[in-house]
Amino acid sequence: MVNWRFTATLFQIILLIGAGHGLAQRAAVPPVEDGQLGQTTNVHRCGELFLAGQPSPEDIAILKRRGIQRVITLRTTGEIRWPEEGAMKDAGLEFIRVPFRAPESLTDKVFQRVRELLRESEKTPTLLHCGSANRVGAVWLAYRVLDQGVAFDEAFAEAKTIGLRNAGYEANARRYIDRAQSSEASVRPGINDNFLKSDLDVDEWLGRFEVESREVYSARLEVLDACQLESGARVADVGAGTGFFARLFTDAVGPAGWVYAVDISPRFLEHINRRAEADRIKNLTGILGTGRSVNLPPDSIDLAFVCDTYHHFEFPQSTLASIHSALKTDGTLVVIDFDRIPGKSREFVLGHVRAGKKEFRGEIEAAGFEFLGEVAMDGLQENYLLRFRKR
Fold first, then answer.
1. Which end of the chain is more exposed for a tag (fewer CB within 10 A), N or C?
2. Do 162 and 140 touch, CB atoms closer than 8 A?
3. Which candidate, 356, 391, 351, places its Cα nearest to that of 370?
4. Does the residue 173 lie in any domain?
């Protein structure tokens, strides 16, 4: 039995080594680092988010200087003896209270509200605090696993570093994560098993993917035009496979842009890595995704491109949420997939693709995307191309 957690970690190390040979590797999510905010205790930072214990009145000016715009407290009314809410608002800071104290008061509703606020705060410098960062560590654990796709063990270690020490909080967080992850059942169990094999034959898939008889390959230049890429854009090819679209995108965005080739298959990413090095491509990074996440940082891409891959999303809600998070405001999602029409589509499509265009469009719109339209092109007869904007 292959240990895929070990394989994923090892492959990320391989990619880092590859960065020294012309491929710039970027962390999948911002790391948690030590921070400082005046006399505030136990401060850590992750991107634009500060995680800490209780700030003092004297620290408010420091929060302002550090660019913090929003303060979220997990403390209940009456826990401190100075009017924090009024002082923060007088300083022009947004102040939000999501209070809990005893472990039994850390409910699903609290987790959901904090996760919602943290997702909103990915682009707004924010301080999340309680008294000692104990409560912060608990809600951080759920957010990091469910919204940013970090492995539980890694997120738990972060939460302990941040300040989590209450066994009741920890137990609640574990149960909440388990419930949340099990609530979205796989829509097609095992559909990606072939791509996760350690002995996957890349040459075999090159013979399937990069041939003129494959519609999306023969129409690749038309598809590229439909993506409307500009110089300097950052693009994620989600389900990059053998990487032929990712390589086209590197030319389209130019040296000022960047392309992330995202795939769940270590073998495909090894191939993309080697091919990029051989072709001296300097603006491409391979990213090992999971069945639930594209593992890209928030607000990091202008375009997400999903070609003949959406029907392979085993957990579409989670994967779409990770794409939504990775896209910048008004970022574009392009989806190409097989047009599944009962009585008309060939047998392979009817048996392999779980739903039709209308159903897929509905799922994507429900995940926070605005439908922009379908792009018709001569080269696509069996496939369709849909464009969406992040709402």
1. N
2. yes
3. 391
4. yes
Helices 134-146 and 108-120 pack at an angle, to 10 degrees, of: 70
Q: Do the beta carbons of residue 101 and residue 76 sit within 8 Å?
A: yes
Q: Strand order in 126-129's β-sheet?
A: 33-34, 44-46, 49-52, 126-129, 70-73, 94-97
Expressed as residue numbers, the domain containing 72 is: 33-183
Only one residue has tokens 């094999």, namely 197
Structure tokens at 3: 């240990």
216 close to 336: Cβ distance less than 8 angstroms = yes
As a whole number of angstroms, the distance between CA 316 and CA 314 comes to 6
The rounded distance, in Å, linking the Cα atoms of 220 and 225 is: 9
Are 133 and 220 contained in the same domain? no
Residue 28 lies in a domain: no
Question: Can you tell me the distance from the alpha carbon of 42 to that of 196, in angstroms, rounded to the nearest whole number?
Answer: 41
Percentages helix, strand, coil for the chain (3-state, rounded to 5) are 45, 20, 40
Contacting residues for 145 by C-beta, under 8 A, at least 6 apart:
151, 152, 155, 177
What beta strand segments (E) does 250-356 contain? 258-263, 284-288, 301-307, 327-338
Q: What is the CATH number of the domain that holds 260?
A: 3.40.50.150
Q: pLDDT tens, 43-87?
A: 999 988 999 999 999 999 999 999 999 999 999 999 999 999 999
Q: Is 84 left (phi over 0), alpha (psi -120 to 50) or beta?
A: alpha
Predicted TM-score of the model (pTM): 0.62
Burial bucket for residue 82 (CB in 10 Å: 0-12, 13-18, 19+): exposed
Question: Which stretches within 286-381 are classed as H helix?
Answer: 316-326, 347-352, 357-366
Co-location of 63 and 178 in the same domain? yes
Q: Which of 163, 103, 169 is nearest to 134 (CA)?
A: 163
- What is the average per-residue pLDDT within 361-388? 96
pLDDT digits (tens, 9 = 90+) for 143-182: 998 888 788 888 999 999 999 999 999 999 999 998 887 7
